Amino acid sequence: MTVEPAASDRASDAAVAALPAGALLGRGLELAAMRRLLEPGGPVIINVTGARGAGKSTLVWAALDATSGFADVRRLELTGQSVTSALAGLRHRLSRMPISVRRGDAQGEDRTVLHLERADMLTRSARELFELVSGRGRIVIVLESVPRMRAPGVGVVYVGPLNAADAEELFRRRAGSVAAGFDRDKSSTAYIRRICAVVDANPLAIELAAVRLSMMSLAALATVLESPEHSLAILSRPATVVTGPARGVRADLAEGHEATSPAAQRLLDVLSVFEGSFGLEAVEAVSAGVLTHCYDSLGELLDLRLVELDSASGAGRYRLSRLVRGFAAERLAASGGRPAAQGRRATYYCELARRASAAFDDVEEDEAERILGEDFAEALAALRWLRGDDPRRALRLAADLGWAADRRGGSAGLMEVLVDLTRVELAGDQRPRRDALLWTAAIGSWSPLAADRSELIRGQLAEGVELARRLAEPLPLLRALRTQFVTTMALADIGSAIASCAEGIQVATRIGHVRWLGRFEIASGATQAVIRQYAEAARVGASGLARAIRSGDEEGIALGSLSLHAMPPEYVENRAELPPLEAVLEIFGNQRDVTYQAHTLATLAQEAIDAGDPVAAAEWTLRRLGTLGEEDLLHGLTICVMLGVHITRMHGDHVTGAHLHGSVASYVEPLLTIMAPVHAQLYRAGLDILRKALGDSEFDAQVARGQLLDRDRTLIEVTGYLRQVADAAPAAAQPCPRAEPHGVLTARELQVLCLLGRGLRNKEIAAELRVTPKTVMHHTVAIYRKLGVRGRLEAVTAATRCGLLPVS
User: Distance (Å, rounded) from C-alpha 514 to C-alpha 488?
Assistant: First the structure.
């Protein structure tokens, strides 16, 4: 939301300009709010609240300096006092102050401000404060605190972290005060952003970090601050520097820590084992045996901003800033309690991952995602600790996280552990080794280096499948066969992929598992399509899709629809009734399945190419590039470049097309052998067109130039070209498709649309309306078609524009 400054805000900007450089950088809105509260008729008590080091005192001083009309300003620091002594001292101070009486038409000139610094202990004493100033004339109390004062009639100004741009500018200004100037180049900016992120954009910490540039380089400072062992020692004013804050971050944290109860202190210490966000169940797990219950202590830590709600990770999750975590970790280590706390954390995530993995084996991906939720990164952190403490449990945890790494991407950290722990065969239960080998093979088969490691991958796969057969547990065996299908398809071993599907169908039929049976039929159909047995592919694929629909298998519906969309239309009966690819993409997005999102986006781009729409093709390909991240999928970038080559042909950009083809030429041939034959033929035909347009020598020269590009440069060039194509023809605003709401959408479709607008997923909408997810999918497909959109976000936007949904 954009906030337009009011006239009074402009005055506040002038006040900011009069302060020392950087003193109130990025605080214009807070200063304006403070000045409005200080106007005559404002609240008697103003609470300025925020974390230590946020700049609350500086804000108050600036607001008082910029606001006229006060007869007197008294300052009182309450550090270390109890509620009783603070109120007694305040009562004594007030008794010595003259009672203010309004004189004539004066507009507040007789008011007195009592500025209470570090007054955390009084945030629950609003009633007593109101009683103290009652009858004392025109007194305004400005109370600074870390906890927020929650009481009627109290004006509150929150002073939070700086935004990224202001944090960076504050660092530069403070660095200039110690003669540590540097260019605004990309390298310096990256280091500054790292530093500001480490200190959570806290102004005090930023200033303390900047003055250290008098003794170390920018790069060294960034590295040291990212080390928990050294960051707090660095964030204090060096003895050789006379400017800057007098206190350090450690002293501020210690003061806040001492203000909490002993139980809250113990809880904060054990919470330092978490590296990222965590939920309430995790808090209960790590505090078990340390506290009888953790809820009051957690609330106390939240009030004092030592623990924060983590809005980025979802509702009901918490986090510690890096600096607070470093401080608490020091205390936990000194107490000798760190190994036990780490062990409780590891046990919690081992049990969580085991439950999620069991749900995944039963083809309940939604349930697996619900169980693991946002805890994947924290479970990986627990795995890193467990790896050195208990390799057997580490292997079990790593194997149980394999499905999440495979679907969500970012599997490098997990792969390192899987490969290391499967090198040596551990005695005892072989199930963890079975699962670890299978996920190692599955994830490795999608690596860009899969072709070079094919023998290693085949060996891991063979051992994992053999263990699954020997242990004879039906659900893990089915997953092993599914892994064998996916891996052998990636390695272009079509015969093994077909055999895996056949065995999977037999096992699923024997135990009567409808979802697994449908999944293997869909996989079999996709395999038959690769060898051009389209009639059989469409028949068995349609059977698998029907089973997925009957069993409510949402991901199976998406997989079946994607497979059938990729087949020649003449072989697929009732093709028009298939869920559209946009709906398929939405399902994979809800499932956080990066791999199949990428497949679907490639299919959408290819359909746009087949339809002669280069702009739509460029937009879909750009979205696909966005799913790849730092760690590329097998052929991930290659497929995007190949789609880009098609687009260059359509645009007549033949030189660019040959150049881009050269950047991936060594990967193309293996990919064409497993690609749908019609698309392989289309790509080869496109290359012939480029060669004829340029001539043999020029085409070969441009291909040779492209072969010099590394992955990063290829990514930059293809992204730049696709953006140029997409931006050349911006989409016009979609007209409203109806005159009256009920003229297009049915009553039930309007209900579904309203629930889409509330952000509900298909299963949640089904529960709300007491229908099946399949019915909801049919309604969403109809809504998308009638509104002329591609997905739920576009549907909500279009419906809002047309008045079908409220603007809010």
Answer: 24
